Hints:
homodimer; 350 residues; alpha/beta; 434 Repressor (Amino-terminal Domain); Rossmann fold; 3 domains; 6-stranded mixed beta sheet; 12 helices; 12 strands; elongated; disordered C terminus; DNA-binding
Amino acid sequence: MPSPRRPHAVTITDVAREAGVAASTVSRALTNPDRVNVVTREHVQQVAARLGYRASPAARALGTGRTATLALVLPDITNPYFSGLIRGAERQAEATGHILVIGDSEENARAEARMVERLAPGVDGFLLGSSRLPDARILQFDAAMPVVLVNRRVPTVTSVSPDQQGGTRQIVEHLVALGHRRAIFLAGPPESWLGRQRWAGISSAAKKHGLKVRRLGPYHPSVEGGLLAGEAALADGATAVIAHNDLMAIGALKRMKARGVSVPADVSIVGFDDIFGADFCDPPLTTLSDRTEQAGRSAVDLLVALVREQSRLDHDAPADIVAPTQLVVRGSTGPAPTAPPPDPKEGDPS
Amino acid sequence: MPSPRRPHAVTITDVAREAGVAASTVSRALTNPDRVNVVTREHVQQVAARLGYRASPAARALGTGRTATLALVLPDITNPYFSGLIRGAERQAEATGHILVIGDSEENARAEARMVERLAPGVDGFLLGSSRLPDARILQFDAAMPVVLVNRRVPTVTSVSPDQQGGTRQIVEHLVALGHRRAIFLAGPPESWLGRQRWAGISSAAKKHGLKVRRLGPYHPSVEGGLLAGEAALADGATAVIAHNDLMAIGALKRMKARGVSVPADVSIVGFDDIFGADFCDPPLTTLSDRTEQAGRSAVDLLVALVREQSRLDHDAPADIVAPTQLVVRGSTGPAPTAPPPDPKEGDPS
DNA sequence: TTGAAAGCGGTACCAA
DNA sequence: TTGGTACCGCTTTCAA
Lengths: 350, 350
């Protein structure tokens, strides 16, 4: 009667027996090829290949303390903005011989912390994308294990983030050049560092250019949140709306359309992220673009370096990559109307 | 001089010492609580909690042969169609105490097979989404380990797939009701089982309703592929276009617009999947919708059951869930024009 | 350059 | 109900 245990297919011992050498020699031949005689090495490698030997990651991890696994935790896996990040991270993880596990925190700091703690024993390090955690918690995690932040900066923690200062300046200058004098910023979650950067950058650039900007929110950073936010923006009467992200911008756009407000004739709308769909919504969205796939790759490289450093003892100064951003001007922004936008029509806001 | 090895934080032995019991008792108290005296159990659990004990997944996996990890392999992580699947799978994996690792095969059967082989030693089973592998290879994998297919059916292999027969019938009836007599099907990759089902369903329903359908392709199942496909469709002169998926449908839509062909006045377009963006492109897309998040959840449940069965010895008959689909009618379909569509304008097809 | 043996942190069996 | 112990598969000393 067979045991319920699923045995690891071909073990190092099988290879050793078949090759007529000790298990330790097989181990060396496969992972430290230069510490083994050429003839032995090739013989062992051949036997291993013939038997279809695959090392057991669990056994290796138990021995070395390394799992060759990286975790990527995000607030919302389904936000298309993160697709590029996921793909970039996955590709680079594969390229560096790592496995990528993924976690969704559902925009929730508690859930994010739980996720990190749950995953921690099984991974070598964390990629925290758009983390909703407070700085203190991040510093705590960073002290305990390798962490790379994406879309967030915390002093002393390695990170990759898009240049929001330059980006928001581009947005403000674009709107000012079109003659806008008053704008609305539709805020996302207060826990969003990127959101806070965006508001700070916009406020400061706006002051410099004499643009008045009011902030509304917070709203959920989704199309649904944008629907609500769009309603509020209409009530305010500004001629330009800057949304926390494209999801919200698209929601606002929908609401404007439902209300009979013309974009960009009556109101201009700007988003952030240049997500899938931003170029084919109606009108196409003017938005601040960044290279998320590249960010994912860089972040993995940094994380892998951190994991390596951890085992040596020379720690480099933490890296902070600030990636360039670019304003993509499309149809949702236009010259400011000379008269204030019309009152929204009565009717079901769907 | 400290060793380069990162030691597992708090081990079962630490807890045992602190609690004044044997390691095996700690193990039981934590994983088989009913096989331990209430007092001992609670004492141990308390000590474990106080010390912040977390079991080492590697050690557990080595002992039990179970990793509590599931793999999800997809042809294209960035296709928004898969977002729901990823989220559903991730949530249900978490709910059942599993970790989800993710792999992208980039629409490539070889890469998919490599990915499965690479991941296999570290996971308990596979979720293969829209697999591009030949049946034989899938059967081979299925014989070696627990596998659940999503968006694919292969005899004897457990699967979850959307009802394409009913779905394609809905599409054809919709077009026929609008007066269309000739349609084009823009095919995706020949490796796509879903694509083959779609073509089969459409052909058969079309025959029944006297609709003539020609198939063009294959095309890459992306917006870029749709751009090309749209061009070819224009040359054909049919009044309705059914695209392999929404990505292609959106590409075709873009091309029509660039060519000055009006949708749906001149040509109607139908897609599959109802992805993010299908409701706000211009015009919004008529498309066949399925519940991907639910599919992800069901698939994980089935996989977890398979993993459990594997260690018992009673294998149930493989389950085949066929999930309902629903045609969402939006602005991209309309009455067939009485005259054939105008010749496309000359000009740069961008 | 190679082999033998001692862990790594759990689980599970066998006795007590 | 508990403790002792033999693994699980691989890496890594330490000797030979």
